From TrEMBL, chain A:
Domain called Pyruvate/ketoisovalerate oxidoreductase catalytic: residue spans: 20-207
Protein's UniProt name: Unannotated protein
An individual GO BP term: response to oxidative stress
Keyword terms, alphabetized: Oxidoreductase
Residues spanning the signal sequence: none
Keyword Oxidoreductase attributed: yes
Pfam families found in the cross-reference section: POR (PF01558), POR_N (PF01855)
Organism: freshwater metagenome
Pyruvate flavodoxin/ferredoxin oxidoreductase pyrimidine binding domain boundaries: 258-480
Example of a GO MF term: oxidoreductase activity, acting on the aldehyde or oxo group of donors
TrEMBL record, chain B:
Domain Thiamine pyrophosphate enzyme TPP-binding: 65-212
InterPro entries on file: 2-oxoacid:Fd_oxidoreductase, THDP-binding, TPP_enzyme_TPP-bd
This protein's UniProt keywords: Oxidoreductase
PANTHER family for this protein: 2-OXOGLUTARATE OXIDOREDUCTASE SUBUNIT KORB (PTHR48084:SF4), 2-OXOGLUTARATE OXIDOREDUCTASE SUBUNIT KORB-RELATED (PTHR48084)
Organism listed in the record: freshwater metagenome
Gene Ontology MF: a single term: oxidoreductase activity, acting on the aldehyde or oxo group of donors, iron-sulfur protein as acceptor
Protein's name in the database: Unannotated protein
CDD domains: TPP_OGFOR
Pfam families recorded: TPP_enzyme_C
UniProt cross-references to Gene3D superfamilies, sorted A to Z: 3.40.50.970
Biological processes, Gene Ontology terms: cellular respiration
């Protein structure tokens, strides 16, 4: 049966099911096939903190949203065009995001009386007319999967578990996705269990064939590849990009990479990934606690390695004293904070930008620490290298503020030519550097470079440069213990001046204002880049002007930031916190920032931000 | 002594010329209270380090916070005075990433057993190549006289005017319970014994914990005096020597015997006969004997206090295992190529 083929320019699909239904895997596979098609894409996994919440309940719903298009896109999409709901809980938890007229594919087998009651449905929504405004496709996914697998020598439960592959096959047919990648994937994944492997392959094929033969779907969709600059592409998630960026920084600086880390969501994947790359000389140390993680990283840095610790907000709180030590020792250190909802344990699997002030000020004393914030999943690669550059060049701890959205989200990435990446010079001290009063040469561990104000990094094993340093205040230059009042005042100011001096090596901000006449500026930092950029496009498409800047360096600020802020009538700043960057900008530049703040554990939607921009435009 | 005596230090570069204690004295004025036991330990360590025959620049002393933790400032090696309790963690990162260094941790009973207890036990179980010198004076000195985790219960201090309610730690028992491969105890004022124990610790691959009974003459003076007083010490203190019967007393009249139910007891040798006195076995795989010995002492009266090496067994160090794992992976997979890594297995080309 030949079916009608309709061209679309973009689609947002959300796979939703029980935590045990394999929705993340289904989403990942569909994403891989879509990446291979050359579409631009952006993904948003959304899963609960519980590994397996009670089956069929609302807290147990796990979802994966994918936005793909024939043009460049900036977000995982505001609302799905297609919702795949594997059970009543998945339908109920996600329906509020689904716009009228959208397709909903439901697994009718799971819509039993018992499952409906579990989530508070008194009648079956598939039958009671409550979904009339949607295009509902009721499909018996489970029983068709079991039927397709009846010849295999596997249990009914194992057969039922393959229903996600049936759904994936169907969606791949519906959107003309290639299947070879998934076939290869299943062969590799279940290589040790051939019967399960064959069953999953059969379920995947059965889903595809069902699409082709059923009258439920009369239309098949095609989305052309998006024009992208020439190059070799791969799909890239934030935590993976960050781990690769750390390995790259190690290569570029010639320093061994040492990761001291304690498992914490959503940062653990960086530890997992780096532990797989020992062939790069990477040392990973799973510490007894967060403090030991950063402590070991500081020890490794003292010894001349690139010391890194990875964590999330609660872990940063525990590491604060040690980060202050690194400020005082003036040693390179990367502190990767993959932010999540807080305070306290908060929302471990949800995203937030609420650790900015903790990164800025969360230490005793005046303890400035530079902050770099990646703006998209693949940008985590370059942001990690940039953070390492600052840490090594300026002998300072540096915060890399990622978040849960960047960590787990993914996008196509044009793989860079590593030979074009700039080297980082550790510039170890090897010589005595100061002439004593009696004319002999000696080593002063705090004699600063006049340009960067960085101190010499003399690592153990360097003959003649033996010295003692610690967390007690040190005499300017000589580095010996000093309790002198004037010296302390000077050292506090020097440490601040050193961090401020980094601004000289940060690229100036470039305003994105295609019309050149915008009076309203919208700005952000970190992971809000996509939604803000998409919102600007929506506003500009209506013929209105809005300018955009985005901060990758949050401390120190780029040198032209003040001038830019003061050249617009209004400045809007959306943040996934209650206004932390707004507070810093107001304090530093006396600029009246219009904050737009939400802490819902999810990224901003672009149409929501477009409304914010339009409201400001209309108020002028 | 030649450096060959320390196979555990085989990766640390050797000094070309003979060294003296003077080579290890830094130019910093020592600022402990006059009469502090730390002076004796510092002097002994400065005299002992030349025995190792290592390049000075390849020796690092790492400390936490407390009186003892000022120690690194006074040695002309590399030194890192860190934060309270964290020295074992910091030293773990350093020692793991730098096999060419001899790394020493200086800590106290508060630093190691209170705020840093977690790092201490994990360093011990991992067997990182660290030598931890725990100065135990049973009091907080730098914060001016509060009870510590090794203070005896009932101790009157500034923070326990009616007497401390805390039951005390026995650092040797704790270390043995934490899977330590080397545990020893010595005394600040016994230069010879201290040197012997440090020498044994230096030669050990992995973490060595050396508890040093140290006197704080300001806040807890004479805490260990009965073990130092020539009139009493021989009656109270047993010197453990591997392979030798455990006997003590002025006339060696006392000894340690294993009772039928398995526990150890101090007995009169004349009554039970020398054959029934057990010999010390520091290399026993099972920590039972070492632990039982550590439990003999009375924390209040200091009766039956063993000093010396309780346990010294062979287990590969954490840093060696990490190096071997990296080497094995590199050997089997080849060293990593960054460009290949970035491409991964699933790319597509856009032209």
């Amino acid at each position: 049966m030949s079916k009608q083929v309709v061209q679309l320019n973009r689609v947002v699909i959300r796979f939703a099911g029980d935590s045990g239904d394999g929705m993340q895997l289904t989403g990942d596979r569909f994403t891989s096939e879509t990446a291979g098609m050359g579409n631009d894409l952006s993904t948003l996994p959304d899963f609960p903190a519980e590994i397996r919440a009670p089956a069929g309940t609302l807290p147990g719903v796990s979802a994966f949203q994918l936005h793909f298009a024939d043009h460049d896109i900036m977000t995982p999409g505001d609302s799905p065009n297609v919702l795949v709901a594997m059970n009543p809980a998945a339908l109920k938890a996600n329906l509020h995001d689904v716009p009228r007229g959208a397709d909903i594919i439901v697994n009718t087998d799971e819509f039993t009386k018992r499952n409906l009651v579990k989530v508070g449905y008194e009648t079956n929504p598939i039958e009671d007319g409550s979904l009339d405004q949607f295009k509902v496709h009721p499909i018996a996914l489970t029983s068709m999967t079991v039927e397709a697998l009846k010849e295999f020598e596997i249990s009914k439960k194992e057969a039922e578990r393959a229903k996600n592959m049936f759904a994936l096959g169907l969606l791949c047919w519906l959107y003309h996705r290639p299947t070879e990648g998934t076939v290869e994937f299943l062969k590799a994944k279940f290589g040790k269990n051939p019967e399960i492997m064959k069953a999953n392959l059969r379920a995947f094929e059965a889903g595809w064939s069902y699409g082709e033969t059923t009258e439920e779907f009369s239309v098949q969709y095609e989305i052309n590849p998006a024009p992208m600059k020439a190059g070799t592409y791969r799909n890239m998630s934030g935590n993976l990009a960050l781990a690769y960026g750390l390995i790259a920084a190690s290569k570029l600086s010639g320093l061994n990479l040492f990761l001291g880390s304690y498992p914490i969501t959503p940062a653990s994947d960086i530890l997992h990934e780096l532990s797989r790359h020992k062939r790069f000389g990477v040392m990973t140390f799973q510490a007894e606690d967060e403090i030991a993680g950063v402590g070991a990283a500081i020890g490794a840095s003292y010894g001349g390695a690139l010391g890194v610790t990875t964590t999330s907000g609660p872990g940063v709180a525990l590491k604060s004293e040690a980060i202050g030590l690194a400020v005082s020792l003036e040693l390179p250190l990367l502190v990767v904070d993959v932010q999540r909802g807080g305070p306290s344990t908060g929302l471990p699997t949800k995203t937030e930008q609420s650790d900015l002030l903790q990164a800025m000020f969360g230490r005793n004393g005046e303890a400035p620490v530079p902050i770099v914030a990646p703006q998209s999943p693949s940008d985590c690669f370059f942001a990690a290298i940039e953070a390492a550059r600052i840490a090594i060049t300026y002998r300072t701890p540096v915060f890399l503020l990622s978040d849960g959205y960047l960590a787990n989200g993914s996008e196509p990435w044009c793989v860079p030519d590593v030979s074009l990446l700039a080297k980082i010079d550790p510039n170890f001290a090897t010589e005595l550097n100061h002439e004593a009063a009696d004319g002999t040469m000696e080593f002063w561990p705090y004699l600063r470079d006049p340009e960067t104000l960085a101190r010499p990094w003399a690592i153990p094993g360097t003959a003649g440069l033996e010295h003692r340093i610690g967390g007690i205040e040190k005499a300017d230059g000589a580095g010996t213990i000093s309790y002198d009042a004037d010296n302390h005042d000077k050292m506090v100011r020097l440490r601040q001046a050193k961090v401020d001096a980094i601004a000289r090596t940060i690229p100036e901000l470039v305003v994105d204002d295609p019309d050149g006449d915008a009076r309203v500026l919208i700005m952000g930092w970190g992971s809000t880049y996509g939604p803000i950029g998409a919102a600007c496009r929506l506003v500009r498409a209506e013929g209105k002007s809005v300018a955009q800047i985005h901060l990758r360096h949050v401390n120190p600020f780029p040198s032209n930031l003040e001038t830019i802020l003061k050249s617009y009538d209004r400045v809007i700043l959306p943040e996934m916190n209650l206004g932390q960057l707004s507070m810093l900008l107001r304090a530093k530049y006396l600029v009246d920032i219009i904050g737009y703040n939400q802490v819902r554990g999810m990224p901003f939607k672009s149409d929501e931000l477009a409304t914010v921009i339009n409201d400001v435009l209309e108020s002028m | 002594m030649t450096t060959d005596a320390f196979p555990a230090l085989s990766l640390v570069p050797k000094a070309e010329a003979l060294q003296t204690a003077k080579d290890f004295k830094s130019d910093q004025e020592v600022r402990w209270c006059p009469g502090c036991g730390d002076y004796a330990i510092l002097s002994t360590v400065q005299s002992f380090l030349p025995d190792l025959g290592l390049k000075r620049e390849n020796i690092v002393f790492v400390s936490g916070i407390g009186c003892s933790s000022r120690f690194p400032y006074y040695l002309d090696t590399f030194g890192l005075h860190s934060i309270h309790g964290r020295a074992p963690a910091i030293a773990t990162g350093l020692a793991t990433s730098r096999p060419d260094l001899s790394v020493w941790v200086i800590t106290g009973d508060g630093d190691a057993l209170s705020i840093g207890g977690n790092h201490l036990i994990h360093a011990l179980r991992r067997n990182v190549n660290l030598k931890i010198l725990l100065f135990n004076n049973r009091i907080y000195g730098l914060t001016k006289g509060q009870y510590s985790p090794t203070s005896e219960r009932g101790k009157i201090t500034k923070s326990s005017p009616q007497g401390s309610l805390d039951y005390s730690f026995n650092p040797v028992s704790l270390a043995l319970g934490a899977e330590a491969t080397f545990v020893a105890r010595t005394i600040d004022s016994d230069r010879k014994h201290l040197t012997e124990v440090l020498t044994a610790a230096a030669g050990h691959e992995g973490t060595a914990l050396v508890e040093i009974y140290q006197n704080c003459n300001i806040f807890n003076d004479n805490a260990w005096e009965p073990l130092k007083d020539t009139d009493t010490r021989d009656d109270l203190m047993m010197r453990l020597v591997h392979g030798e019967p455990i006997r003590f007393g002025k006339e060696q009249e006392k000894g340690v015997m294993r009772k039928a139910d398995g526990h150890l007891e101090v007995v009169e040798v004349a009554k039970v006969g020398l054959d029934n006195i057990i010999s010390h076995d520091a290399h026993a795989k099972d920590p039972g004997l070492a632990f039982a010995l550590s439990r003999l002492s009375n924390p209040r009266t200091l009766e039956n206090t063993p000093i010396g090496v309780f346990r010294d067994i062979t287990r590969p160090s954490y840093d060696r295992l990490m190096r071997e794992q990296i080497a094995e992976v590199t050997e089997s997979q080849g060293s990593g190529d960054l460009q290949t890594l970035l491409f991964g297995n699933d790319t597509w080309a856009v032209s």
